[in-house]
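Most newcomers find our protein records easier to grasp once they have seen one. There is nothing in a record beyond a sequence line and a structure line. Getting from the letters to the tokens is the skill we practise here. An example says more than a description, so a record of this kind follows:
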Amino acid sequence: MTTRTTARTTARMRAVSQRGYGGPDVLEVVETDLPAPGRGEALVRVHAAGVNPADWKVRSGAVRKFGAPPFTLGLDLCGVVVALGDEGTGRFEPGDQVYGCAFPPHGSHAEYAVAPVAALAAAPAGISAVAAAALPVAALTAWQSLVRVAAVGSGQRVLVHAAAGGIGHLAVQIAKARGAYVIGTAREGKHGFLRGLGADLLVDYTAHDFTEAVRDVDVVLDPIGGDYGPRSLRTLVPGGILVDVRGTGPDRTAVREQAEARGIRFAEFGFTPSGADLEHITDLVERGLLRAAVDRVLPLEEAAGAHGLSESGRVTGKIVLTP
């Protein structure tokens, strides 16, 4: 295997690691060796890394798809390619600024991360590394579910739950960019923020039952689950679609059966890391149609606090870590 690199990099780095599953307090910053990129991978000097619910779900042990600890979490990143693990695909060279997805055990909550080249794209022009790092997972989830799964088009009515959250606030903008009438559920205090992103109608779920306030919807995007799935079916027109964007996990047999009985489509959706799809995200960003709201920027040393904030469910947009 041939590895191409930029100028010499340090042989050691700081990374957020955990030795076991548990609460945010299991996270610690350690000094460790740089990971080596394999075939089809790039070593990226991380300038900023997003925090997603998937991170604390893996940290707690609720999701165990990356093997046992120790490992470094983090999916979202923006940074600079410093090495390629083989002769490459011609898409990137050392020195290129990229954004996209990395995965444990060598995730993005570190000074350097290894990422599949296929999961990276050139970083959008005109925005900061922090703003770019807030995009990949949430934006891909929103874009793929609305475009590839639901095929949202002009004039359709789209209901986005948790509209001020990481996925939700991006889904609002993507649906608007496709000509939809967008309805969002969010606390009253976040309505101004969402109107600024283009939301047409907002429902304060703490004061009103959205099933009474919303009707004749073509698409529902649900990142919450629980009773939101069955209740959302009441808002959909026959032939409409409910997209549960939480990926695999809880049993959804009941909501699937209820949807079928009502003539409504139901989809369980988990995002696919894709540099090609990120290029569509980049296009929207560079045309001024999409931006990530960043609630908080924290250093690696405050990763535990970032996890606590994310788990609270009260974040507007995204949290980003910087090495």
